[in-house]
Model the fold of this input.
Amino acid sequence: MAKPKRKFAARLLRLIPARLARRFLRRQEGAAAVEFALVAVPFLALIFAILETALVFFAGQTLEAAVTDASRLIMTGQAQTANYTQADFKNAVCSRIYGLFDCSGGLYVDVKNYSSFSSISTAQPVNNGNFDSSKITYQAAGPNCIQVVSVYYQWPIYVTMLGNNLANLNGNKRLLAATAVFRNEPYGPAACP
Done:
């Protein structure tokens, strides 16, 4: 009597995986969950990439507006008559940004004086994919002088998708740059050379 039980048990053990597999393939209750799991990761990555792209463009526009507004301090001579330093002018820009940027370390203000509009250099201070802060100066000039005010910020990029990366600096950062070019108003008797 022991031999038939063993044969039956051996046969049953061979059939159990086949039955379970057929039963698993026939069931449809979890199909929606599996399909959602397959689609959720690319969908969420796309949503995060769209949100990050929108945030980067919004930050760029905010920086442009802050630079345009703060540059009026130099254009009207208020910064020069109040003896603004680079840190003072940076604080003036930061007061117009309203919390989007970390002004304590990542914001750089570059103010240069030019003799003519044709001699203005538009090169960004980037060297081998790294921001070069040694090219940053502060030269607020007198009345009727041509000024270029540039503000740079290294914005961190978190989502990179399908090779369309927003980063243009090493370390997954995007250099946001805002520039204002103008001739100072004749607020005083001195003229620019």
